[in-house]
Amino acid sequence: MEVQIAVAKTNKYAVSESGDTLEVVERPNGGLSVVLADGQTSGRGAKAVSMLVVRKVISLLAEGVRDGAAARAASDSLYTDKQGKVTSTLNVVSVDLQTGTVVLTRNNPAPFFIARGEQVDCIGTESSPIGISRSVRPVISEIPVEPGLTIVVYTDGLVHAGERVGRPMDVCTSLQAMLEEQEPSPQAIADTLLAEAVRLDEGRPADDISVLVLKVTKRAGDDVRRMTVRLPIRGNGA
Amino acid sequence: MEVQIAVAKTNKYAVSESGDTLEVVERPNGGLSVVLADGQTSGRGAKAVSMLVVRKVISLLAEGVRDGAAARAASDSLYTDKQGKVTSTLNVVSVDLQTGTVVLTRNNPAPFFIARGEQVDCIGTESSPIGISRSVRPVISEIPVEPGLTIVVYTDGLVHAGERVGRPMDVCTSLQAMLEEQEPSPQAIADTLLAEAVRLDEGRPADDISVLVLKVTKRAGDDVRRMTVRLPIRGNGA
After folding, report:
1. How far apart are CA B184 and CA A235, in angstroms?
2. Taking a contact as any Cβ pair under 8 Å apart, which residues of chain A between 190 and 219 contact chain B?
3. How far is CA B13 from the centre of its chain?
4. Which residue of A22, A186, B56, B143 has the smallest Cβ count within 10 Å?
5. Which residue of B has its CA nearest to A98?
6. Which helix H or strand E contains B176, and what residues bound it?
7. B238 band by pLDDT with thresholds 50, 70 and 90
8. ipTM score assigned to the predicted complex
């Protein structure tokens, strides 16, 4: 098998800094975790919050702390730091090679999607952002790693896309349409969802948008781990 | 412009855990850094060392500490922890959007390559691994981010490939041959170098091997940041 993870990420229109932060960390007992946070508001302040949250979670995961405990710690830490005045959403997607499962930890009102083949389930269990109070708990789902599994997680920029002009995005329908096509790559899924959101926002995203897609394929290739990062730089080089 | 970074990474033959650790972190003032460490020996012990080093460097970079200072701190920290008995190589490749440069920080006897178009330079300035004494300094190079720039960094598994059977690898020649072809992607460069090393080791790598390629292209596309990770999982799911 092979787990493939793809991310597409853009900023709110006319804001140079994304309030979303996403990082990947190796798990000390095998596998990896992707941590995605969206700090309240946008621009520099939001970026500082989401970086704080992601750093906290990543450093705990690297020490072998379980995902749920890391999310609670990040919430308490943010609450203590900002006295409950600043919140952040948090999603952790972990491939745990010890248990052979994908562990999804979520403190985000935005739902996520699990697809097996072409069957798409929207998981929208109520879930609060972190930093809001002392009693925030994550919603945790654990799913066996098996070929055909696709998971889509995103920040609320995708949820709210098109609302300004009265044409909200229907992520589930878009995703279903894509999965009916021939084996879309996770990058193609992430790119298509992001492009649709930007189009609904008429080319000027009303918020930062990050889309994360995890896909498990059969594959009988080599044992090489691979990673690619693409960072566009505006004309002035800054 | 667009900066593209690609990594290909494999383990020593018959060792399930790679002693190399590689992680990417966003720089708080714009851009990103890739941190690659290769802990002495192989397997679980080496992994613990390289993770320690990478975590240390990443957490300092995330706080805005300069690359050279972060490398010195990681060296002192490893030296203090292991009393100079365990060393690690360290390479930090940073895209600094504030200065518009790529900053290469190196504590690794293995050289690295800078190519502009088809002109390839091998940078082999003497450089010691970290953790060896109290006075370890990194070798730092700073290069403007401009289209046509290609940088190749790797761990010593690539340097030593083929030595066992008396056919050592010539990275420079391989790289030059590739760059003469039509615009190879950074992933293609990393994959080809890694595949050649594995072939020289007769399919059984004598050491962990990681290859990191950074490439700057012209490109006039969208402003979307993208990332892909591919994690092969052996049959038993572990």
Report:
1. 23
2. 190-191, 194, 219
3. 20
4. B143
5. B238
6. helix B171-180
7. very low
8. 0.89
